[in-house]
Specification:
mainly beta, single chain, 7-stranded mixed sheet, globular, 4-stranded antiparallel sheet
Length: 122
């Protein structure tokens, strides 16, 4: 199970930190990722982390501004979003899958999703 939190409204240039609490994945290496979907657009992968080797991946659209990390307890994932842009307005989803190729932004590779948290940048 994946549960996101931390969304909200922010002005352009501001920051937000999203959290994803995961349960049921202990003892298995897997890819955890953040996707976002704006109204009328396809779901877009923005950041991913492979738990087996702490490898991190970013889409070109967020590289240098977003940072993905895991908590000390390893069952929480974060997305620190800095220098937010208006085009970053979207529903942000946490996803996880032990077989998804991390860094390849195909949402079909992920079987487990959270309910999403809304980010609005104005």
């Amino acid at each position: 199970q994946l549960v996101e939190s931390g969304g909200g409204s922010v002005e352009a240039g501001g920051s937000l930190r999203l959290s994803c609490a995961a349960s049921g994945y202990s003892g298995t290496a897997y890819c955890m990722a953040w996707f976002r979907q704006a109204p009328g657009k396809e779901r877009e992968g923005v950041a991913a982390i492979y738990t087996g080797a702490d490898e991190r991946y970013y889409s070109d659209s967020v590289k240098g501004r977003f940072t993905i990390s895991r908590g000390d307890a390893k069952n929480t994932m974060y997305l620190q979003m800095n220098s937010l842009k208006v085009e970053g307005t979207a529903m942000y989803y946490c996803a996880a899958d032990p077989f998804a190729p991390c860094g390849r932004w195909d949402s079909a590779n992920f079987d487990h999703w959270g309910q999403g948290t809304q980010v609005t940048v104005s």
